[in-house]
Amino acid sequence: MDCTLWFCKDGILRAKLKDSSEMISVKFLQEQKNQNYMNFWFEWWDTITYFEEGLTIGKFLQCLEPWAEFWGAYTGKNITSYIRESKKEYVKNKEKDNYEPFDWIELIYSTKLKPKVLYDESENDEELMQDFEKWIKEPKTIALSGTWSMYSNYDLLGYTKGKDDRFSTEGMKMNHMFNVPLVLNQQNIVVIEDHAFKRYFGKEYNWLSKNQFGICEINRRDTKMKYLVSDYFHSMKDVVSGFFFWMHETPYERDDFLDKISNMIDELEKNGEFKKANEIIGNTVYQIGEGNEESIVDFSKFLDIDKPQENKQEQKEEIIKLNNNDEEIHILPDAFDDLMIQSAEEKEDWDSLVEKAKNYKGKKLVQEGEVEIAKPIENRINSVLVKGIDKKAVPKPTDFKKEIK
């Protein structure tokens, strides 16, 4: 079926048939098919997935709870333990929990694109690494390979309204974020990291012409960042793996890791090494980048199958001209019949499931009416707040005109 999946704000994962106003509980659909988790989810593996407006971190985890063990095996994370943590009572500790609450959290897919750099292996880095300060400041001998490095991943980031900043969430407890709104960004932000060009050619080097269409630029932390934006459709498997991508296998391992880091920083601060390391890194020569059963349906009203065959043969091909160069597409009369039949069958099967779900053990398994996609409170590119339509940051569409042949 041509369906989408929705993480709903009431904590139920639902499916929605295209052009249908009803959504059905996915757990109910699995029970009707009587399939094991793996066979069932393989059918929904690449299904386009959305978050409903009003969804929170806690309700997202609740949507996954019926299949926590399966998705845990897929992601390599103990999702059951994270769900259990999200249900614990939380009272903020003013001394330990010294961060500001987020206004919303975004699951974002982004791509980093940068020139691939080659380093001169003849340089004796071992000597330099004996003195960290000298090693980090020493200019390296580099060359550009002529190819690009590309890396894409999901990030789960927290934002505060009105502040040009962002925060990672993998170190936070789930019950601390339980009621924070969760948004699935519908774009792929492709960040073009060009600092390698400037390290090789000089700070004034521009590898792109000015006002290159579709390439945007914003100022971030005293540097100019180039990027482009594309629409992006998220699959179910990518949403789940992306949400847990940066998290530790269990909450216990996360807490243990953070305790060790905290103790290490305390020790460095006592010896004055932490301040010295910050000063060294802050004065580097170059900037390091961020890194079932067939049913019988009457199709005669729109397929004309009740008419004599000879009448059907008399129908003419529909001809569509593409341009003035005599290029044509010939469409046969029956070209889309199979698609229409399949669509009608799917709609009938779906309506049958909807009626069954409405009266299933007294549970609310059907959600009716239009559903709204969750949107961020503010538009961000990385951490930078983009206010309205900034002509410098967002390319303005060109006027319509005839294409040039």
Protein model, in words:
With 405 residues, the chain is α+β, with helices and mostly antiparallel strands. It has 14 helices and 15 strands. Strand 9 and strand 10 (223-231) form a beta hairpin. The longest helix has 22 residues, at 337-358.
Give me a quick take on this structure.
The chain is of the alpha+beta class and 405 residues long. The protein has helices at residues 26-33, 37-44, 57-64, 68-75, 79-86, 125-130, 132-137, 195-201, 236-244, 251-271, 273-282, 300-303, 309-313, 337-358, and strands at residues 3-7, 13-17, 22-25, 49-51, 104-119, 142-159, 167-168, 182-192, 216-220, 223-231, 318-321, 328-331, 366-368, 380-381, 384-385.
Structural class: alpha+beta
> Order of helices and strands, N to C?
EEEHHEHHHEHHEEEHEEHHHHHEEHEEE
Q: What is the residue-averaged pLDDT? A: 78
- Counted by DSSP, the helix tally is 14
Distance between the amino and carboxyl termini? 40 Å
Strand count, sense and closure of the main sheet?
6 strands, mixed
Q: Give the tally of β-strands.
A: 15
Strand-residue fraction? 15-25%
Approximate shape: globular
Over the alpha carbons, how many angstroms does the gyration radius reach?
Answer: 28 Å
Low-confidence blocks of residues:
283-313
Helix content: 25-40%
Spatial ordering of strands, largest sheet: 7-6-5-8-10-9
Features:
single chain, 405 residues, alpha+beta, five-stranded mixed beta sheet, 15 strands
Summarize the helices and strands and which ones pair or pack.
Elements: E1 3-7, E2 13-17, E3 22-25, H1 26-33, H2 37-44, E4 49-51, H3 57-64, H4 68-75, H5 79-86, E5 104-119, H6 125-130, H7 132-137, E6 142-159, E7 167-168, E8 182-192, H8 195-201, E9 216-220, E10 223-231, H9 236-244, H10 251-271, H11 273-282, H12 300-303, H13 309-313, E11 318-321, E12 328-331, H14 337-358, E13 366-368, E14 380-381, E15 384-385
